[in-house]
Amino acid sequence: MAIEIIFTANKEPEMQNFDEIIEREGTHCYKYDLRKKIFGVDDVYPMWVADTDFRAPDFITDALRKRLDHGIFGYTFLDDEYFSSIINWIRIQHGFKIKKEWIKYSPGVVPSLFASVLAFTEPNDKVIVQTPVYFPFYTAVKETGRQLVRNPLVLRDGRYEMDLNNLKSKIDAQTKMIILCSPHNPTGNVWRKQELLDLCAVCLENDIMIISDEIHADIIYQGNKHIPSASLSDEISKNTLTLMAPSKTFNIAGLNSSYVFSSNPDILDKFSRYVEGLHIGANIFAIEATKAAYMHGKEWLSNLIGYYTDTIEMAREYIHSNLKNIDLIEPEGTFLLWVDFRKTNLSRDEMLKLLVDSAKLGLSDGFMFGKEGDGFQRMNIGCPRQKVLEALERIKSIKSFRA
Fold this sequence. Notes:
Helix content: 25-40%
Distance between the termini: 63 Å
Structural class: alpha/beta
Radius of gyration: 21 Å
CATH topology of the largest domain: Aspartate Aminotransferase, domain 2
Number of strands: 15
Number of helices: 16
CATH architecture of the largest domain: 3-Layer(aba) Sandwich
Strand content: 5-15%
Strand order of the largest sheet: 2-10-9-8-7-3-4
């Protein structure tokens, strides 16, 4: 059923102060309040979990406050404005026209990963992931009784590439699915059109379904373009379930606001059996935040990407000038830096001891993204720039990292 596309013009561009330091301790915050659990000490400088230290923009908090002031929070359905905000955002930001009937609510991308594996594969089926990659990809496969097939990315001339020859060699009759990370976490790759076309061609030839995690799609740097996998062709679209959310972009992960889309009604029906069948309804505030983010967020996002761009430039120059044993994999997207410590020739235990115990710095250990991430660390730069500088100075304080 068609709906009228409702578009609300952007409010005046919000010049948010991204340098503002906001205290997060004591707010049940993973990044700060779980440091003791994650790192064994509670005084590390946290640059790990992928949310940001930026206040959500005013147009989101205003929308939440307006809904809060109503005072009644009963059962709520997804209205046309919710769907049209998503449709318009994807059309404007990514050049892809989707329809209302393609979209389903989900509480989060990770629950969608699990639901997808359960819905579209059987126990002992094989699922491909391209490593190093976001670690819930592994658990979504292993904890559901499926077989994990690793197809490692290849680092060539400072950029990761897909190894399709290796991928083809691992496909057999049990191979039913690939989980694609696009843009890629943790490497920061933004896949090019031909790379995606080549991968999708292999999947179509071998009847392998594509689950495309595109949660980082909005944070893309100059010279790169995010291409939704499903936009490549009708045939690819009907073989793909896309997972998206406004949470990374606008720092609203705690609201459990996510959605999936596919042009294939059979895919949506099967997916719904695992989400709607559990009566997981949309959070009232997630609905309002999503609408506000996508209806008013274009200029704000442009300012945010500008801030990230300057932060990356600062980090690049600092590493080049001060940390001769460390390389930065140039990010094409995301607010995550993939930092190469392999020239230090330190073991994983030695490196973690220096970072945590000596530098008092909490990064995401590359090994958690797969063995191919050994020797790397992921740094979250979604914070005021002075915090990134402080983290870099803590690394510089260790002789082994600057020699």
